[in-house]
Protein 1
Amino acid sequence: MKNTIMALGSALLLSGTVTAQKVAFEEFDLDNGMHVILHNDNSAPVVITSVMYHVGAKDENPDRTGFAHFFEHLLFEGTKNIERGQWMKIVTSNGGTNNANTTDDRTYYFEVFPSNSLELGLWMESERLMHPVINQIGVDTQNEVVKEEKRLRVDNQPYGNLLAEVKKNMFKKHPYRWATIGSMEHLDAAKLEEFQAFNKKFYIPNNSVLVVAGQFDPAQAKTWIKQYFGSIPKGPAITRQTFNEDPINQTIKATYTDPNIQVPMVVAAYRTPSMKTRDARVLDMISTYLTDGKSSKLYKKIVDEKKMALQVGAFSFSQEDYGMYIIYGMPLGQTPTADILKECDDEIVKLQTELISDKDLQKLKNKFENQYVNSNASVEGIAENLASYYLLYGDVNLINTEIDIYRSITREEIRDVAKKYLNSNQRLLLDYVPAKDKQN
């Protein structure tokens, strides 16, 4: 009885925490097609202005990869009314910070200002959208910046090409097959007119969502939004091509040699469905079950108990059209990587044939409850989540309801999804090896 009361109390406490995290928002469209989301939060005197564009690496031409990421940099160069080199100075001199990031599916820009600088943030993002200066000096400058980033984060980074190699082998038709950072040769070969055309096609109001989150007056915000964004012309509708990959019916084998590493890595990667599907959420749970933390099944078994590996891990790389589930292991000493792979496979077979315990399922759900709370714990996180759920999922209110999907996942679903996607004939096996190690 005592345990029942304690469990009930914990459930009520958890329920209260999640309820307290519910995100209130308001959304509307401007006449030019720009979607606007407002989230008022008076807990701190800051405000975020952010714009997410529905353009990423998958929208590039195969012989001009890297454009979307390049624009992440290029659109800080300056505008008609913001001189070159002044963007960061304006932000920092007004007590703010800013940043941007790019994926295969979208590009996101944001500023965080003291709450009394909302108008400044809106003006700057409207300038980026309406009056960007795209000239040869900006292209040349950012070309060198991107090359240096690639050298630091990819070319000279241990295991830096892991994801690119997996994507290259997993996708044959879909643009997910190339790296987000793209090819330096493609960027070098591109003419200024190509960059200008890319901007004109994708960086338009009707291909974006504006989020204002934090402490602000909603009526005043709406007035400024219409003032600064309402007059920007609507762009032509974007026609997107659909790419359907053929099913993987037999194991794909590949090897990649990395001069930056000394310890080989074995990688097993499975193609999975869009992040918008229920199965993708189940795969998130499977990933957490197998390798999230030192108490996870694979870590305890392979690293702690059998001491076969320095590290094992797995993650769901979920995206708008397809995803990937990637498992990796780094051997300890002379352990053959094939032995690590067998241990991983044995644990997957258990998932496919046996139900995990009720205790393990509850532990998983508790972790996802915690992740849900943490993802909405800051106004910056809320702003990006609101933009993503609108632009990529088509449902802003998933910021409040997606956790219900995870709560409803059953042990049977975990078994069935593992059986559906995680089979040895449906995967890539990548030997990621040191330069002088051809692998055992």
Protein 2
Amino acid sequence: MSDTEGPTRTRLLRLLRDRGALSRAELADRLQVPRPRLLTDLDGLLATGLIQEAGPAASRGGRRSTLVELNPTLRFAAVDLGASSIDVEITDGRLEPVAAATMVSDIRSGPKEILHQVNEMLGKFHTEGAFERLAAVGIGVPGPVSFRDGVPVSPPIMPGWDRYPVRDLIAREHGCPVVVDNDVNIMSIGERYGGVADSVDNLLFVKIGTGIGCGIYLNGEVYRGTDGSAGDIGHIQVDSHGPVCSCGNVGCLEALFGGAALARDALAAAKAGTSPSLAERLSANRTVTAKDVADGAAEGDVTCIRLIRDGGRRVGGVLAGLVSFINPSMIVIGGGLAGLGHILLAEIRSVVYRRSLPLATGNLPVVLSELGTRAGVVGAAVLASEIAYGQPS
């Protein structure tokens, strides 16, 4: 959103978040609002404690204006719930991290257990002095979400979470606004705010992890669909004779190349002896993981390279259809399996460029996430700041 769109209060706070301390004169210029109206809004925000005066600005030739900045004690909590981990960051008003922690966790243990762990992590941050009180909390979950209601909706890999009141319970616990979104949406928001997709208005962010999903930016706004399930590409069928997926259907993309699927196929290759690298790792560790596949591919193991290329080909086939349909200006690949690196990226690129119309791919970068594992918490922090400022994305 540009400096001249949206309510003045929201635009003012967003401007201070993104640009730092500014003078009253600079704010008036950038926001293009009458000075009396700006001063009224500033007085109101000063009274709330969201902003404060920060001394005189540099002279512009006349009487020096006063700098205004976000209150340095302002704090947001950003929570990224994954299938097997919880990432939490506390940020200041400018979304700079103040404290961070990661906990191994299983989303299938249910909402009560997971949210208890989240509250314990936030409580520890409070005890350690990372914040006195929270202005807002942003949360991403690995499944479809009703953004309006703040609840997961029939999430395939989250038993017990359907319609669970995540937003309301966290808001009650911490006494502040809370926003809940699908994890890939918050990753796309994070990458667009502070990563390789900075200010790209038409964007596909593809998360390839335990599940596979796609965050969609159209005309600078996240597109969530009518019921919050837009971008759930992991459940597009790519093989009518494929394995049964967690959603109950057959041959979904996720069932063929999500994290669990890759581990399954890697284990089969190790047991069959078709991959010396994976067989060695299975013997040493009694299990194999996606990282073992990546390491084996780096060592030149033919089976590991084939597993990655097969997955990239399937993802690329789905994305080629989306490129023809949406015509994005960038595709970003993130999530845990993005760590498979350039073999995966090269295969995805090859299929997308080969199977989409030249007009749609002539100027289409397909790149790896710049923020990596932080994309989710960065996006959750952005959403928290937006709801605190009165304008959720």
Protein 3
Amino acid sequence: MGSFRRTTGWALWAAPRQVVVWVLAVEVGALAATAGTAALAPVDAAGLVRFGLLGACLVAHVELSRTVERKREIAAGSGPYLSTTSVWNFAGVIVLPPALASAMVLLGYGYMWFRVWHRRGTMKPHRWWYSACTVLLANQAAVVVLALAPGVPTSATAVAVVVAAGAVRWFANYALICAVKLLSEPRARVRDVIGGFGEQILEVGAMGLGLLAACVVQTPAVLLVGVPAVLVVLGRSAQVAQFRKAAETDGKTQLFNATAWTQFATHALERTSRRGGTFGLLMIDLDHFKRINDEHGHGAGDVVLKAVAKSISEGVRSGDLVGRFGGEEFVVALPDITARELMAVGERLRRGVAALEVPTGHVSISIGAALAPDNGQSVQDLLTTADAAMYAAKHRGRNRVQAAAGLLP
């Protein structure tokens, strides 16, 4: 009875209806597919030995990488967190009967739950079970592909089938994770939900090691002990990349912080100048932000900052660089743009922010625009010029875009 009460108290049931329906559908589908593929091959003594070897390596891997994996999960933020235990799951798909391959997934997730997530309270039970089911479902998709070339690959065709199985497994799991995040947070930016490219490279590397482990487990099994060590190194490398990204990102808005933006903008300006192109810069200030904080509180001010940051990010071109410059100021670097195009982008951003609906009421921004080489040869020159134009916009009544002196005829 106590377990039933804990289950009915899961936060899942408070989620939007479409999320609950999706999660339950995936879980039922995972269990049905697991039961369906279990009959494809019998469990034999050799399979049990391989399961024991891979399972022992999985346990060793978890014990060696618990701290690193937890930090990677935190750094992943709203994007998907991909555990490197997929090495053992994919190896199991290749060399184990489907029933034991599914048991490998449950062993890994069960062990991670009791050794990491449950002890530290870092993952809710319904999230843990959904994640396990996405991997189970992805595994069954790979099992179907591998049925075309059973066993460890010994020919180019068989290798191609295994690679295809790995690709199908990765895509199925990744899509299921991203789908539930998009359903849970429909207003979230897609690029935040899908995560960074580095995480996907790590997943590809993990599955490559899974293929290696599958080959080794059928030869000198002692060589398997090297795989967990390699995984720990991979995990630490991914953690360094995530921390580097965190150091470049403003915590409130997820835009570049001032230091990172200035560095990237300087490089972009140098590249543009070498091509003989023009380079635009917009300095943006949120109007009456102090009044918002004073009248509605800093929490409401943070909501406004995030909404404005999102609106600006969605209103610029794909190659433009958006940063939070401090307080209520934002900056945008726009390579290869004309003066009139720059003003048009600024006006689009102004209208987008003015149309926002936030708890504090309507908000507005004042924008100053500058262009290299007309208004300066360096990012600092452009910042100074655009800042002066932005203050001119405020003096003229706010909620407007002001070009730097001499920018327009």
Protein 4
Amino acid sequence: MKLQRKNRRALALGALAVSGALALTACGSDDTGGAGNGDASSSTAAGNIDCGDAKGQLQASGSSAQKNAIDAWVKQYTAACKDVQINYNPTGSGAGITAFTQGQTAFAGSDSALKPEEIEASKKVCTDGQAIDLPMVGGPIAVGYNVPGVDTLALDAATLAQIFDNKITNWNDEAIKKLNPDAKLPDLKIQAFHRSDESGTTDNFTKYLKAAAPKDWKYEPGKSWEAEGGQSAQGSSGVAQQVKQTEGAISYFELSYAKDGIKTVDIKTEAAEPVKATVENATAAIGAAKIVGTGKDLALELDYTPSAEGAYPMVMVTYEIVCDKGNKADTLPATKSFLNYVASEDGQGLLADAGYAPMPQEIITKVRETVSGLS
């Protein structure tokens, strides 16, 4: 750090205050989500941010799956744009969209694209416009488990569906044994946890179960959990914590929450080998997604039943929800500035280290064009 600071003293006086603050930010990193890890690249990324006329407070809420990504982005952005304070509340996708359509937030995060009724509701707060979906961050939905003595576990969609529908209730069940012939599966009750709040992660997880195991998953996909039985917890952090502390537990959450020793399931697909939940395997799957939104809306259609080797089937994309036109005048400059950074090469570059998948180039290019035209 001393060498970096010495070099910075050679910069022009007008840039000195900013670079010094960025140096302190890089050195004081708490390493949340993998950004700001104290290297020179973090400082450089923050230095490339265009604050424009951004100032004041930005209130936002929604997807808890992207919270670690938001934390990483906010850390870098506010180091450069000191007149902006961003408060992101990870209330879940459903609550985030509701808060946005009620005019309480500048933008929302959702792991599911807007429904027609939500777009209609947004027209009350988007003057002469409507809410649109901007895909900003992706990644695999990991299935975490806590089974003592089992370091590697493979499951398929049918078995997962039966576990989360309370049809398979013990870890030494024959269906699990068949998929894991070399594992020493204990005589231990399965403790399946799902989200208690409305969640885009739940929506994507149940879309996968419905698409890949329709005979075993009779429920319609959605943000709210429909199956009976099991236990619940609030947010991605809540279910991840339950897995960590409960023997026999299993749940689903964004890969960035699979830390502190939480093991994740390899998913058996039509491919020859079970697929691990990795950023690389998710990025490949997102690259095959189709843009199905109309106008400036960039909603994507994902494939939950891939057969290619290394294609992870449970992929999620988190959208930032904003008005295409009619954003509030007092928050528009900060909203555009922040989202411009999030969609930039530097912003997307933070994601892999934080356990997320950046958007493919052809998608993020369209996102950048759309953000620049927000009004």
